[in-house]
User: Fold these one by one.
Assistant:
Number 1:
Amino acid sequence: MLEPIQRLRPKLLSTDDPVFLLRWLRHPTRVGAVTPSGRALSQAMVRPVDWAKPGHVIELGAGMGAFTRVLMEQAPNIERLLVVERDPVFFARLQRRVPSAPLAMGDAADLPELLARHGISEVGSIVSGLPILSMPRDIQRRIITGALNAGPDPVFIQFTYGFRSPVPLSKLAEWGVKAERCGFVAMNVPPAWIWCYRKA
Ligand SMILES: C[S@@+](CC[C@H](N)C(=O)[O-])C[C@H]1O[C@@H](n2cnc3c(N)ncnc32)[C@H](O)[C@@H]1O
């Protein structure tokens, strides 16, 4: 007979590593989820990436590497990736779990500086696992416009657990950004919607 906590474990943790839940307990708004995204959401998040388009693919807020793994499977050349994570505990996990991924420890709000430091002059797609909904408006603007200005026509791919865009469409329009729902994943806990943001 399992103890109650053991019965809960598989529901709360999709891995045997409790770090995600522990980081969420410490910084709930910075982490934004209690478990890493599942495989179905990870695949759906990477689907809008057009590898034929020139430029780098940037992942923001990689956590334990759920999206990173799919990106690495699909990238024609992993040198075209840059995986950004701000939290030092998650960053150390990424170094262990996806050692061959090009990783950068830093804040997504400082993306132009991070790109310059890594010699990246053009971005084609941005895959964001960031808890953008819980961020202050000015940080949302810095992250989204900073990423969209890093290439001629990049797509910023963002998931959210609500039906609506995590940033109001009126705000996005003010910032010169157009938005469309570009995916829905029922097979995730909780189900998730995917938004694609582009320059208007
Ligand atoms: C909801 S978790 C998503 C992790 C992973 N992409 C997934 O879906 O399983 C959000 C991640 O974004 C990171 N993060 C939050 N704010 C950030 C920022 N400003 N810059 C970079 N990473 C950030 C957190 O540390 C955390 O790893």
Number 2:
Amino acid sequence: MENEKTGEVLRVASDEERDQAIIDAGFIPGWIGEGGLRPEPLHDFEPDTWNWETGRALLEAAATSINPRVAERRNIRMANSAAEKRTSLNTIHCSYQMVAPGEFARAHRHTINAGRFILESKGAFTTLEGKKVFMEPNDIILTPNWLWHGLGNENLEAPAFWIDFLDDPLVAALKTIFFEVRDEDYKEMPIKEGSHHHIRWRDLDLQLEDLVPDPNGRYGKRLQLQTPSIPTMRLYIERFDKHMTVNPVKSTANHLFICAEGSGTTKVEDKTFNWQRGDVIAVPSWKLFNHRASINATLLEITDQPVIEALGWYRETTV
Ligand SMILES: [Fe+2]
């Protein structure tokens, strides 16, 4: 089909030819594909779940062949099931990590903000700025932007496992990732008690007992953790009594939920995920979701809500 030029205006014989001529000239027509204005956000991440029993078995199998001295960390990424994703959601992410008995991994620091929720530890530690912090199951350790942190496991029999949660998809999208390594002498290192980057489960457990569920049915007993060193993620711990169901909500924030104890289900739009200790649920933004506890249960919630709020885009609705 021939194009006919009239003055400087290109005339084409069909819509396809018009669009192709624009693409051939190095543009993309603003009226096709992504980038256009829509009444509501479209999300290319799916609601998803990862199972701890499966993750633990896979890490144990990898223990003999993956050396953290080479790989930096022995972890498996909770990649979203949507096509070609390496992260759990588009701003926040989780991985399962293992440290073998008697194993140590060198210290490093990065601009990514991170934290770890401890699944199993009988003598595992994180080093924070050159001091050892020993970790108990269900403790949370924060490793904020540019803080030196290493890790090791002094137990010679039992491996240690935890869930890393990070803002790395956000930092990667903004092209602001920096990373450095250094060796530390873990044998001579002092032990730190009472670091403000160490949130102890035993303290959380006591605080939760003094709370009451939200009278409007939106939450169980819910506590926001003090994490001022991490501006990109907000953490809540939420406890549900047996058979408690909270009201559905959807918001422009992304959510990852880690089951700390008990079991239950999370419904996200038309999908229902079962969870028990160590399992992780990903709820992309603008998806209606709610939780139901099968037995007494506690979830750790990680959300990018402070980022969305800071930029003026936070919305929530119950329909
Ligand atoms: Fe790290």
